[in-house]
Amino acid sequence: MRVLVVDSNAAERELTVRALSAEKHEVEAVKDAAAAVLALEKQPRDAILVETTMTGATGFELVKRIRATENAASRQFILMTAAKAVAADMKSAFGAGANDFVRKPINKEELVLRVEGAARLKSWLLATGAGHREVDLTSARDVTSTQAWATAETGMTADVGAMLGFTLTPTPATNVMKGAFVGAQLPLSMASESFEVRVAVAADQESARAVAGAILGDPDADESDVRDVLREMANIAAGCFKRMSAAEGRVLTTGLPLNGSPMTFINESAKVRKEWTATCGEIGATLRFELQYIASESTRLPLNALRDGMVLAHDLVNASGALLMRSGTRLTGNKIAQLPRALGAAALVAVMTTAD
C-alpha cells in the first residue's frame, strides 16, 4: 500500500514509517499540511495518517481540503491520530471526513491493522460489487437492507478485537442489554436525519472486571474508567459500521455519546435491532453488542431549548432569506449562541428527534 504520514513530531513520524515499512508498505512522511498537499498532488495514496494538531493548518483542516478535491473514484482512506483523544476531537475528525480515529501512543500491531483497514475495505468492495455502482444518496436511507447491516457483527467484532489485541467470537443473541452492568452507546445518522442507528457495547459485572484487568491492569478499576474503555470500543464499532455503510452509499455522521446505564439503551421504538455477544476466551469476558434502527421526526423548539448535538431538520435562514446553516448541521454551543442575534430571541428552530 502507498501510505502518507502527516505528523509534526519527528520521532513519531520515524516510528510510524519504520513500522509500516517493515510490513512492505510504501511510506512517505511529511511534517505539515502544506507538504502533505504537495505530496498528494504528485501521487494519491491508499491510506493517509494525519495528526490532529500540527504547525500551520490543523489536521482537521487538511482532511477537509483533501476531501474537497476528491470524487467517489479517487477517495482515499484517512486515519486521524491524537495524543489526547476527547469526544470533541473524534467528532471533528469524522465530521471532517476521516475514516478512522485512534489515540496515541499506537502500538505497532494496532497501527498496521488500522492502516490496512483500507485494503480490507477495498477487498470487501470488490467482493460485494459495491465499488462498481453509484448510489442515489437521496433515496438510499434503509441501512437495514445493506450488506453492512447483514455483516455488522463480523466486521464490528473483528475491529474491536483488533483494538483489544484479543480474538472475539460473535454469537447472535437477544435482549443483550438486560443484565449488563456498564456500557456505552453512540448514535449515527445520515445528513437527511430521517433515521438514527445506535451502536452500543456493554458488559456484565464479571466481564467488566475481566476487561478492566486486561486493559487497565486493575479488575477493580472505577466504573467510569471501565465505561471509557467501552466507549472507545463503541467508537471503533461505530467507525467500522460507518465505513461499511459508506461503501454502499450511506454516509453516516457520529453524534455525541449517549449517557446512561445499559438498561436505558433499550428503546422499544426501534424499528429494527440486531444483537449479539462476543466471547473472548483469553480473558474470560463476554461483550454485548447492539445495533438499533430508529426513525426520526422533526420538532420545533425555542432557542433556549436547543442543546449540543441536536441536528437541524431544515435549512436555517434569517429574515432576509440569507442561509445561516444547512439542514443536517449538528449544533454546538457556539452555533446556538449566535442564533438569538441572527434570528431574534422568539424564533423557533426545527430539529430532528428520535423517540426514546
What can you tell me about this protein's structure?
With 356 residues, this protein is of the alpha/beta class. The protein folds into three domains: 1-134, 3-Layer(aba) Sandwich (Rossmann fold); 138-296, CheC-like (Chemotaxis protein chec); 297-354, Molybdopterin biosynthesis moea protein, domain 2. It is 37% helix and 26% strand. The protein contains twelve helices and 15 strands. It has helices at 10-21, 33-42, 59-68, 87-96, 108-115, 117-128, 147-150, 152-164, 205-216, 223-246, 262-265, 333-343, and strands at 2-6, 26-30, 47-51, 77-82, 100-103, 169-172, 182-190, 195-203, 252-254, 272-280, 285-302, 311-312, 316-317, 323-325, 348-354. Strands 6, 7, 8, 9, 10, 11, 12 and 15 form an eight-stranded antiparallel β-sheet that branches. Strands 2-1-3-4-5 form a five-stranded parallel β-sheet, with helices on both faces. Helix 8 crosses helix 10. The longest helix is centred in the middle third of the chain and has 24 residues, at 223-246. It is globular and about 60 Å long. Mean pLDDT is 84; it is low at 130-140.
Question: How are the SSEs ordered, and which strands pair?
Answer:
Blueprint: E1 2-6, H1 10-21, E2 26-30, H2 33-42, E3 47-51, H3 59-68, E4 77-82, H4 87-96, E5 100-103, H5 108-115, H6 117-128, H7 147-150, H8 152-164, E6 169-172, E7 182-190, E8 195-203, H9 205-216, H10 223-246, E9 252-254, H11 262-265, E10 272-280, E11 285-302, E12 311-312, E13 316-317, E14 323-325, H12 333-343, E15 348-354
Parallel strand pairs: 1-2, 1-3, 3-4, 4-5
Antiparallel strand pairs: 6-10, 7-8, 7-9, 8-11, 10-11, 11-15, 12-15, 13-14
